[in-house]
Amino acid sequence: MSKPLKQIHLAAHFPGVNNTTVWSDPKAGSHIEFSSFAHFARTAERAKFDFLFLAEGLRLREQGGAIYDLDVVGRPDTFTVLAALAAVTDRLGLTGTINSTFNEPYEVARQFASLDHLSGGRAAWNVVTSWDAFTGENFRRGGFLPQDERYSRAQEFLATATELFDSWQGDEIVADPATGTFLGDAKAGAFVHEGHHFDIHGRFNVPRSPQGRPVIFQAGDSDEGREFAASSADAIFSRYAQLEAGQAFYTDVKSRLAKYGRRSDQLLILPAASFVLGDTDAEAQEIAKDVRRRQVSGATALKHLEFVWNRDLSSYDPEGPLPDVDPVVGEQHISRGRAQVRMYRDPLAVAREWRELAQANNWSIRDLVIETGNRQNFVGTPETVARTIDEYVQADASDGFILVPHITPTGLDEFADKVVPLLQEKGVFRTEYEGTTLRDHLGLALPDSRPRSSGGIPVDETAGERAAS
Amino acid sequence: MSSTPLSPLHLAVALDGTGWHPASWREPVARPQELFTAGYWADLVAEAERGLLDFVTLEDGLGPQSSHLLDPDDRTDQVRGRLDAVLVASRVAPLTRHIGLVPTAVTTHTEPFHISKAIATLDYVSTGRAGLRVQITARPSDADHFGRRTIPRIDDYHGPVVTELFDEAADYVEVVRRLWDSWEDDAEIRDVATGRFIDRDKLHYIDFEGRHFSVKGPSITPRPPQGQPVVAALAHATVPYRLVARAADVGFVTPHDTDQARAIVAEIRAEQQAAGRAAEPLHVFGDLVVLLDDDPAEAAARRDRLDTLAGEAYTSDARIFTGTPAQLADLLQELAQAGLTGFRLRPAVAGHDLPAITRGLVPELQRRGVFRHAYEADTLRGLLGLSRPANRYAAA
């Protein structure tokens, strides 16, 4: 007996402030004007996507002591732009990345509950953590959080916000003019949370929203991050869009669910993925190669090499060989406000490996950065791309993809027009929205409003610390 | 009759739940079940825009509404709960074209960095119609919702604790404003030849260091369309008058007669001069709660009926006007003579008194030649006669 076909989930990532986004393209529009966001969201909704995704960064990136100027710089406030997008869309989910370090649960819970009300049940929260004092310089608290506490704060932040969401059961607003009863329960919204990171109590002032709670996303890849997702998230924004790596991640994370009393379909794995379409596969490959060269200018190549070398390489020729000098190893990093640099845990080894690669292939600095950088995940004709996406999902490399176009705001149009109909023909992607809320689109049940009874969210704040140890 | 030409009045409405009277939700027009839907707010703001009003304000708070000054109550007979005001404003922005949107933000427990970019973004999604009304909270119960500091209990809003909270609010507005200017207008250059997206010399650290917080900057959001969205505050005493005079574009004040209006305006203008801002335009709006009907007896009877339902006579910091649109127009013109440049009207029942403003008061003021017949500008600053300010960080 063959397995029933999995339905694919698709989402649209608004092009970000990194070199994936090709702002130099003549077609590239504003990354700030609302018209760009509205176009992008309407395209995603026309294509029946599950949701739109916004990333966040709370301090402009710097390199070598100056604001990084080679990529798109600047973005709007996440909540505010999502609330406005709720006015120009009807069904599309609205996912915002919101930091659990430089916010407080009461405020964030109000904002997500408000967004969920104002969108008729379409809000989702990608919970991220950070600890860096660099970002902290923009906030009251500064860089207050030790790195090893960031997941325990995130875990407790989410648990606390969940208690706030659940402090209203959903039936309190009686509003009966005849009897004069507005609230059916005088204690609506009452909460008490006493924990390591938060000690708060009082009354939450937003009644229960259509989805009960926003859909919860998690994006970290570390062991603690995966455990956090398995215990508390509805979906993971992952980085493994390749077949084998995706399958390994999928198996690993889904196997962690049982110990939290959760089923495998209660956590969706949705990797970020880029794509390039062409009339033939060969043409698409050519376009993809051209896009990669435009994503990595000579100046960008030098800056990316500095992520590893951790020193000023501006005197090098990007079309020339790699530096002979070794990376600077130390706590201080030339690049600040960028998660990516932490990937290079052993810069000396990476530098050695890259020099060998460059010598063996006769690559310049720019060639090397292009070749070792991320390739587009799906390249080919619409048929090739639709088939590959379907194969990956059916092979449990993911439950769908969060697509990252490289052009703002029209980069999704061609995918919507050409690839989505093919997925619909295969019977693996919806032709109409079946429900009105994001939970409906993702096949997630409404959470029980009685905290601690659903088994999904561990409110024991030591869970995160256990996972971290 | 005065022979001097009449200067036009500015009109705003303050939206709060089903209206400012605590029994307003029991009126047949009130729609209390829809208070937490976008459609409810969209309809109210559309009505205000139909009346060519300058802007709406949206009330907010970091705790439930209460009949007590400082503490929560356990009442079940009044509206409790509300949506985040910035997000309500943003949700209705794409549905409107001209009216200004001025949500309330509490400065006491929130981050100026977050609010600055939120209002800048509201300015983008509304293409230049955003404002920010700042408010403090001295409620210990609100502080308990954050658990970050303790606010000492106060007896009234006149002691050092409140002064301190207003000092913090002044710093907050300073940070918000510096962040709005932290990108020069032409910082985004998209120079393909050099590969530079921005000219980083046109981005600025704000390096604010104050007693309550330090903020480095620059903002993550480019300078908003208006340059500086409109900042407003409600004020009842010298300390908040000083905040208005130093930091705001619009002050809301609560005189109960023309003498009080004249005295308040004089105090604010003196503070404005002392702050070195005498040359800058600063609006002083009078706040009034309004119950409007075509027959004054009808309005009075409605107020009685609402008070009976509430179980007590409604009182307010602002004067409560009960009467006809023409009588209200008389009062507004009289108060304007005392130096008020506009009014923020608080409809007692939003579903009744807002349409009475837009369809009764506004035509009356238009007949008298003191209110616009069409929107004359595309931005809130434009409607208020405020020019787009130069950037404080731009080289002269």
From TrEMBL, chain A:
GO terms for molecular function: monooxygenase activity; oxidoreductase activity, acting on paired donors, with incorporation or reduction of molecular oxygen. FMN binds at residues 97, 151, 222. Pfam families: Bac_luciferase. Residues 444-469 are annotated as: Disordered. Residues 24-395 form the Luciferase-like domain. Keywords: Flavoprotein, FMN, Monooxygenase, Oxidoreductase. Belongs to the NtaA/SnaA/DszA monooxygenase family. This is F420-dependent methylene-tetrahydromethanopterin reductase.
From TrEMBL, chain B:
InterPro entries: Diverse_substr_monoxygenases (IPR051260), Luciferase-like_dom (IPR011251), Luciferase-like_sf (IPR036661), NTA_MOA (IPR016215). GO terms for molecular function: monooxygenase activity; oxidoreductase activity, acting on paired donors, with incorporation or reduction of molecular oxygen. It holds the Pfam family Bac_luciferase. This is FMNH2-dependent monooxygenase. Coiled coil: none annotated. Belongs to the NtaA/SnaA/DszA monooxygenase family. Keywords: Flavoprotein, FMN, Monooxygenase, Oxidoreductase. FMN binds at residues 60, 104, 158. Residues 31-303 form the Luciferase-like domain.
